[in-house]
Amino acid sequence: RSHDKNPPNLVFTEALIGNEWCPASSGKKFAVTDPASGKVLAEVADCGPQEAERAIDSAASALPEWKLQTARERANLLQNWYKLIVEHKEALAQLMTAEQGKPLAESRSEVDYGASFVRWFAEEANRTDGDIIPATNKEQRIIVIREPIGVVAAITPWNFPIAMITRKVAPALAAGCTVVVKPSEDTPLCALALGALAIEAGFPEGVLNILPSNQAKEVGEILTTHKTVKKLSFTGSTAVGKLLMKQCAGTVKKMSLELGGNAPFIVFGDADVEGAVAGAMISKFRNAGQTCICANRIYVHTNVYDEFLAKLIVRVIALITGPGAGEGVTIGPLINASAVAKVKRLVDQAIGKGAVLTYQAELTHSTDRYYPPTILTEVDESMDIAQEEIFGPVATIFKFTSEEEVIQRANDTAAGLAAYFYAKDAAQIWRVAEALEYGMVGINTGAISTPVAPFGGIKESGFGREGGKYGIDEYLTTKYLNWQI
Ligand code: ADP
């Protein structure tokens, strides 16, 4: 029963409002399924506008006391939460693989990665320093203080069911804000498990509220238009981000938007090809290609093209597709059938326009749930696959000859989240790093995510930064005091 304090599998199925587990007032529930099998894992409360209002009220009542706690007190609670997440790593990882599909090894790393934001922002809670500014006359003192923005709403996606929540919630709580989270309808179980551990960690009631819901539009409308909510942090698709931005305009909410990417991955002529292939494997195939920073367009210089492709094929052949909990599996199912259909559409259209199917694994599993690891060559920018986020295990290879040309092609997209390149020449590295119009650039690496650095994009990939010393700024306002003494 979901009222158990901490069942061994950490499965909770009701909304968390004011530290109470609550059913939806409509009595409605929705099914959470295992993407590997379609099996129903749990029936979860389907929160609607009423629960959204209640959760916002609960966060609002908790705010006055929470923001007056010392930073150290908030940090201590975040540390407790961090320890509990790490302690329950295995149960959380199993839950994640069950509802999201990623290989168990990746789920375990995500639990660590997700927990690391809680630890990081526990530390940052103590560093929201202000300033004293030299005044313009003798009788004046000018002081700058940083205050929590207030009640925060967070809407999160399914591809990282834990980390996308902790990197919003931890800095918000550290700053002294209270939070309402609406996790993805595909992965509410990880969110609720985090909530259960937060209660156990000792957070006061109403500080963290979690609304599982299959009514994203209706709940989203409340979260984006309610006067009490002062900030919305969203990670998800660009289309939904744009809609939420419009909805937030009515009450001028502060926002952080982490939207879609279209990452170029450039291998220059003098690059360490072995390293570039390893980086491409991580960047492209992690989470079966379902990350917003996945290499979406792999540009390879003609000098190293044959070597790169030959080595990449060997590595892609070695991928093992299957249920995330399966022994040795490296590529799990995609999140649902429409995700598979989308990847198929992009690949078919590219082939129709002249791309070459250089390698495609044979599937031994359901073709509705899985997409086979694939390499497409002779890809160009006229194809949809170069313009849209693939979100599947398909490496698309483009050829180039000059730096100027590849920079122009790499930047020719509305997205500006992550980019990667492999090169050796120091002057070129500096030049290219500056020329790429992206919020994050991996140089001779395919792995850029870390809690100590600012994650986020430019252009239509959004704004705001998560992680690093910058991450907490998103939840603080700057107040200036002009004091005549
Ligand atoms: P993805 O392609 O990653 O599923 P979405 O943008 O559809 O991206 O989903 C990200 C989050 O946004 C999820 O929690 C989803 O429920 C939520 N969402 C989707 N549509 C809306 C909407 N109209 N209003 C508010 N939230 C939404």
From TrEMBL:
<comment type="similarity">
    <text>Belongs to the aldehyde dehydrogenase family.</text>
</comment>
<dbReference type="Pfam" id="PF00171">
    <property type="entry name" value="Aldedh"/>
</dbReference>
<feature type="active site">
    <location>
        <position position="258"/>
    </location>
</feature>
<dbReference type="InterPro" id="IPR050740">
    <property type="entry name" value="Aldehyde_DH_Superfamily"/>
</dbReference>
<dbReference type="GO" id="GO:0102810">
    <property type="term" value="F:glutarate-semialdehyde dehydrogenase (NADP+) activity"/>
</dbReference>
<dbReference type="InterPro" id="IPR016160">
    <property type="entry name" value="Ald_DH_CS_CYS"/>
</dbReference>
<feature type="domain" description="Aldehyde dehydrogenase">
    <location>
        <begin position="21"/>
        <end position="480"/>
    </location>
</feature>
<dbReference type="InterPro" id="IPR010102">
    <property type="entry name" value="Succ_semiAld_DH"/>
</dbReference>
<dbReference type="InterPro" id="IPR015590">
    <property type="entry name" value="Aldehyde_DH_dom"/>
</dbReference>
<protein>
    <submittedName>
        <fullName>Succinate-semialdehyde dehydrogenase/glutarate-semialdehyde dehydrogenase</fullName>
        <ecNumber>1.2.1.16</ecNumber>
        <ecNumber>1.2.1.20</ecNumber>
        <ecNumber>1.2.1.79</ecNumber>
    </submittedName>
</protein>
<dbReference type="GO" id="GO:0036243">
    <property type="term" value="F:succinate-semialdehyde dehydrogenase (NADP+) activity"/>
</dbReference>
<dbReference type="InterPro" id="IPR016162">
    <property type="entry name" value="Ald_DH_N"/>
</dbReference>
<dbReference type="InterPro" id="IPR016163">
    <property type="entry name" value="Ald_DH_C"/>
</dbReference>
<keyword id="KW-0560">Oxidoreductase</keyword>
<dbReference type="InterPro" id="IPR029510">
    <property type="entry name" value="Ald_DH_CS_GLU"/>
</dbReference>
<dbReference type="InterPro" id="IPR016161">
    <property type="entry name" value="Ald_DH/histidinol_DH"/>
</dbReference>
